[in-house]
Amino acid sequence: MEVILLSELRQDIFTGEWIIFAGNRMKRPYDFIKKSVPKTFDSSECQFCPGNEKLTTEPLYQDGSNGNWRIRVFPNKYPAVSDKSDEADNEGFYRAESGFGIHEVVVDTPDHTAVLHDFSVEKIRDILKVLKARFIAISENENIKYAQIFKNCGPDAGASIMHSHWQIIGVPVIPCEQTNIIKNEKKYKDEFGKCMICDIIKHESEKKIRIVYENQYFIAFTPYASKMSYECMIAVKGHIPSISGFNEEMLYCLADVIKAVLSAVKTLREGICYNLCFEDTPKGQDGHWFMKILPRMGNPAGFEYGTNSYINPILPEKAAEYMRNKIKENYRG
């Protein structure tokens, strides 16, 4: 008879947050049916499809003529930040900053219904090359302190448009999450004289219980204090702060790891939604690049919003075992 973990608390080494692992919550009843159905599969109405280029802003990058491209980049038509710098309405008591920033969309396929986990490794590598180039261009703006590459795959992951795409947002501040990571990495280095993520990679390589997949340049594992079920972290093995330092061979290896992990993620549930978040080091800081793949198996609720701590019903060791087995079954490189 399998023993189900009742409860265990683990601390996130990056942020200091406490994560609750509660295995018995897997058995809880659920009275609701949630299903997201696209309004239409008609590509003629999609602003990201070839032939509809006039519906978006002017491209910053396009690897072919209108109607005949594979990857296309343009400024977001409805940006989260403004390309104009205005004075913030600072009350004095509270702190505010200008909403200046850069928000770009990277459409990674001309196919209206294609999904990232079905792309080839070569295709993902080509996307990563474009993402790297746009990340460098955004980061070179003197007013940008932090830029994040991310992808929302599916409605439960926050996607509002069905057609596959990525986004890059550059902002004039360092967000709280990244500030906490920098602070804890610096504290660790001051105490032990080494990079925290380099030591995490060493520890996970020795333990082997949370490793999902690895190749020459990258390692994928389920974090010790995973916030989400089947969450996976991918880290570069060398001490490299951002994607701007990856050569073409490394980009291919990163594409290989992403493809392998997603080959397991897609088996979790039909139509699984997930997020990909790149954690490049903020400008002027010493850090170590990693990214997260976050399957959306459930949504944060009152406890998470009230405490900024998470409840996860799956121990990362069990999640890693499942994903390793699925990669062996499904992934052919």
Q: Can you characterise this structure?
A:
Helix 4 packs across helix 6 (316-330). The protein has helices at residues 121-139, 176-192, 196-207, 248-265, 302-307, 316-330; strands at residues 8-11, 18-21, 61-62, 72-75, 102-107, 146-153, 165-171, 211-214, 218-221, 232-236, 274-279, 290-295, 310-312. The strands form two sheets. It has a ten-stranded antiparallel beta sheet, with helices on both faces. Strands 1-2-13 form a three-stranded mixed beta sheet. By secondary structure, it is of the alpha+beta class.
Q: Notable features of this structure?
A:
single chain, 333 residues, alpha+beta, ten-stranded antiparallel β-sheet, three-stranded mixed β-sheet, 6 helices, 26% helix
Write the layout of secondary structure elements.
Layout: E1 8-11, E2 18-21, E3 61-62, E4 72-75, E5 102-107, H1 121-139, E6 146-153, E7 165-171, H2 176-192, H3 196-207, E8 211-214, E9 218-221, E10 232-236, H4 248-265, E11 274-279, E12 290-295, H5 302-307, E13 310-312, H6 316-330
Parallel strand pairs: 2-13
Antiparallel strand pairs: 1-2, 3-4, 4-5, 5-7, 6-7, 6-11, 8-9, 9-10, 10-12, 11-12
Helix pairs in contact: 1-4, 4-6
